[in-house]
Amino acid sequence: MHLKSTETAPIECKFIHRLGHPLSNWLKINGVLGNSGSREVFMGFAHGGVLKAVSFADVLDESSGTGYQRRFIKNHSLDFSKYIQTNGGTTIPLTFNLRPGQDVGWKLKQLKDGRANLLIDLSEPHVMAQVDCQHRMGFMTDLQVPLPFMAFIGLELREEMEVFNVINSKSKGLNASLLDFHASVLTADLALDRPELLISLFLHREPTSPWLNQLDLGGDATSGMARKASLRTMQKAVKKFLARSNILQTASPAEACQIVENYWLSIVGLLESEWSSPRKHVLTKGIGVYALMGLAADIAKEANCDPVVLSQEYFTTKLSDFVHDIDWSSSGPFKGLGGEKGAVQALDMIRDARRAVSIKLVQG
After folding, report:
1. In whole angstroms, what is the distance from residue 170 CA to residue 226 CA?
2. Torsion-angle region of 235 (φ positive above 0: left; ψ -120 to 50: alpha; else: beta)
């Protein structure tokens, strides 16, 4: 949204003034310069409609991997918009970032005693990045409610993401998979520090993976994409697989990625019908993902976690004897199972089915 010159008159915010040529298309917001910890910030006040018009939320686009914030939640935003207009409605300062770069649409003029003017180019639609105010800003258009705000000055995108993570990492409403995605960007060595996340993202991004683009990362999903599980679910299941199998003692992280992909390719190849209708079956639900990764650990341990042995064909051979004897439907024996206890029960049921077939083969 562009804030045109004709739209400034009804706002009449005492903190915003039209400037003369050559900055005739700029807003001026009076405020102060200071520090928030070790970071320099500008603090000021402006009407909600003005802040909405000159800011943007950099929401994660899962198809391109750009952005980093969670998807917009309409009801959450509407609730704040209604509240802030009530008698007694208030809020802590909104948090923005003035990103660095050429022609970014903002200037700072330092005055005396810490005072400063923030100049914002009205012809630029995306000037201030919304670091911690996305849902408070959602329905602010045209509202003349005065709001306090703080803007970091010149944080690079990576630094901005780090600040967002610090502010929101303990937020109950923040998608855990989005925080995992942030970790994948901010962690220097995933293979060393978060191998479970490395493997999960490999499944999500590898063109040959059956999980390609089908893990929910917590951002804006590609239209029409059939989601099957979240990134958080997968990485927790993979973490248990790594701990149970101890496979990283014999395989590199890259080999472990391939082994896990081989396993899921064999699952999909054998249970194609169940995989293609995820709503009616548990394969891709949390309980199924956890239990199946537990089974993968069993099979890997039997092969001494040898990356040469653990091919797709090997997993298919091991699975084909019993997976068709299990009712994988959501209305079958797995119905009602949930949480860590439910995952253990589901894995025990799968192990029992496998054991029963082994006994038959021996007796036969």
Report:
1. 29
2. alpha
For residue 15 the two structure tokens come to 């903190």
Quote the pLDDT of residue 6. Answer: 30
User: What is the rounded distance in angstroms from the CA atom of residue 310 to the CA atom of residue 302?
Assistant: 10
Length of the chain: 364
pLDDT digits (tens, 9 = 90+) for 19-50: 333 445 888 999 999 998 888 999 999 999 89
Is 204 within 8 Å of 214 (Cβ atoms)? yes
Number of Cα atoms under 13 Å in the Cβ half of residue 254? 0
Q: What is the band of 64 on the pLDDT scale with cuts at 50, 70, 90?
A: low
Residue with the bigger pLDDT between 118 and 142: it is 118
Res. 223: pLDDT tops 50 = no
Indicate the DSSP class of residue 226: -
DSSP 249-301: GTS-HHHHHHHHHHHHHHHHHHSHHHHH-GGGBSTTSHHHHHHHHHHHHHHHH
Structure tokens at 303: 């092969």
Q: What tokens were used for 158?
A: 């990576």
Residue 345: its H or E element: helix 339-363
Task: State pLDDT tens for residues 318-334.
Answer: 999 999 999 999 999 99
Helix (H) or strand (E) holding 148: strand 146-153
The Cα 132–Cα 292 span in angstroms is 38
Q: Minimal CA–CA distance to 70: which of 130, 154, 147?
A: 130
Q: What does the H/E/C string look like for 31-46?
A: EEEEEECCEEEEEEEE
